[in-house]
Amino acid sequence: MKEQEIRGLVADVKDGALSRRSFMQKMMAVGISAPLASQILVWNDVAMAQPADDYKPTKAGGAGALKILLWQAPTLLNPHFASGTKDQIASRIFYEPLAGWDEDGNLIPQLAAEIPSKENGGLAADGKSVTWKLKKDVKWHDGKPLTADDAVFTWEYAADPATAAYTTGSYKDIKVEKVDDHTIKVIFKEPTPFWADAFVGVAGMIIPKHHFGEYKGAKSREAPANLKPVGTGPYKFADFKPGDILTGTRNENYHVKNKPAFDTVEAKGGGDAVSAARAVLQTGEYDYAWNLQVEDEVLKRMEAGGRGRVLTAPAGDIEFIILNTTDPWTEVDGERSSVKTKHPTLTDPAVRQAINLLIDRESIQKFIYGRGGTATASFTNEPKRFKSEKLKYEFNVDKANKILDDAGWKKGSDGIREKDGKKLKYVYQTSINAPRQKTQAIIKQACQRAGIDLELKSVTASVFFSSDVANPDTYTKLYCDIEMYTTTQTQPDTGLFLNQCVSWEICNKENKWLGRNVSRYSDPEADKAYNAAKTELDPAKRAALLIKVNEIFCEANILLPILSRPRVVAAANNLKPQTSGWDCDTWNLASWYRT
Amino acid sequence: MATYLLRRLLIAIPSLLGISVILFTILALAPGDPFSEMATNPNVPPEVREAIRASFGLNDPIFVRYLRWLSNMAHGDWGFSFASRINVDQLILQRVPTTLFVVGSSQILALCIALPVGIYAATRPYSVFDQIANTLAFVGFSLPTFFTGLLFILLFSVTLDWFPFVYRSDVAATGWRWYWEMFRQAIMPIMVLGLFQAASYTRYVRSAVLDVIRLDYVTTARAKGLSERKVTLRHITRNALIPVVTLVALQMPAVFGGAIVTEQIFRIPGIGSLLIDAILANDTPVIMAVTFVFSCLVVMFNLIADLLYGWLDPRISFG
Question: Does B37 contact A83 at a Cβ distance shorter than 8 Å?
Fold first, then answer.
């Protein structure tokens, strides 16, 4: 999708010819995340949607206990140490950022009085600074007022490398200044189109200076508040047993009127996803369970119990296949799959194109993932403005056969195609996970019909996703011809996500295979577009550039996307939660209520 | 006796050191990385990942890490968990009460079933009662706890809706209600563990009693005209229980260790589930501490069992 087309769509939204939602969907289709799509509209003076708050209760409290089941148990409550979603969800009960992302990728103010924009002077024209106004009259749970000092301190705390904060990436390259008691200015080194990173969403939770002030840097581990949080959130801390249970009580002085609805909140951890779904859908012991990576069929059977329902929220996670164009079976300078080598057969674009035609995405969605996945041909899908319209998927064995015939790959006596003595035989690896093994089987079958032989390999997830330098089976080593996994888009911005497609991020021995580009494929055009997007302030132009990066990799059939995976949760029938694929599940816990 | 105890304790030190070296090396060589979650997270730059690894001392050679661990341990510092960044001893202590309650009750339940059933079955070998008890014991220890656990959940939670299947360490209730709620949530895991344990104990008790029941002194006791009840309880059971007591003593470390699978199914926050979570998160300090505590307990209870032998059977001396 070209810049002009995006502009055309924006004009349509302005005229009312195109709804906001369908604009988002069109953008998602070209791989542009929803938050970025809504920023395009803001930039072009279409106000960010102020989603009608459908919060019904007319008074705070009174709804009893809210029971959340996290099958991976939270282990710590400092949002800047939160290593996984489970910890982010737990800390978000007590802490809040300046703003959070809703389901459609709109930025919703939480501790900020308003969202910075060009009109209110929050966004500098040169893109080098953002001014946030903090809400007044917000009190910490211990009664002290929230001021700009706390926000500035949060930056100092997270940016300090000695603190070893997991959120440090969002803070280390910025400067934060206090303008007055309730205003801060975030200064970037370079024009930054995606400014809503620091102080926003999962990385943005503000921590109180008067509790953490003494524990910045190397002493960060000793802070008592790491386990006894004092935040501004809707619930106050009551008790926490790491890896087990977390309880909170209603914050009577919460800064939003009539919220929150529940008197107590409890987050219990442990167990597995299937039994978590059962506790909500079948026995009704719990109100909400998260991250249900369970086969849809199983969930449907449980839903028949009638106590709860399954909800999905669009997110940027993508299940995809990498075709390795380097040679995984030859060692050069102590590493296999080195960019100095060439794969004997997968470097032929015709072979890659044929394999892409042999993935029956619709069946994979229909029979394996159900509501847990949407077939796609684009690497970036959500927010919609980043999804490529150009990319289409197709399942066509005859066409694949024809392409291979035309390219000179002839079937041998064993039914496997070969050319110049090189056979189309591949090792296809992924992590151990029932749906993945079923997907492998479906693709293997189709490939057989086209004369391609796949050897299936599956690796334990804890090994596959580790960054163990000594282990040959990690996903970044890519010691195989074909690999499949899900890459998560933790940030609402597609920019960071697409660093998987740039040449300087290629995994190799030198960077201990910690690079982000696992496929090892690079294209100077993609590098150029990615770099241009980094500082391009006009979101429409930027989206066009990022779409281009996405299309280069998908059209070359290096990355073969299979499914875009939404967040799947279960909620009791009488619970009205607020989910979002762009933020953590408890991002707006204050607005949850019982019907 | 005192010298024997001292000698045994001194022998225990090198064996514990050896165990710790082996555990530490295996953990250091095992695949996996406590920060793997970060590796897939594009927001954490590689430099930061490296800095965190360095600050946790993960880049030092294994023997340096081991010596550091050993000297800290000698000072009573067990290290801290990478996942929750709190001290390991604190984490373990939090789990001890629940573990002792659930696994301890199940052991008591197991003994309460196994002793009477085993003894009664042995006094009437090959009777109908003995046959039934034997069959049930066979079934009991052939069914793994993860299977019976799921079966119980399906029957009592999903179908009948009697008991909850998620165990909560702090029940939100007071007074009698608290006891009632505690009972309701603990009954299923205790039954699952207790019945499994009872099945194997029953067979053990039965064979131990059978060994004793035909000895001459029992016949003598009967010839003296003692009642059958007295013979069974005073003369037979007491002697038959010597091997059973050692068996139970050696089971004690397992009581502390919890029941890993059952804890996972019922979400019981015991030491077993702490260990599993730590293994899944590659949280090496916690794995190291928990496994080391287990080894200490095994060494200690072995010693206690040896001492018990001497106390129960005066023929064994500690020369």
Answer: yes
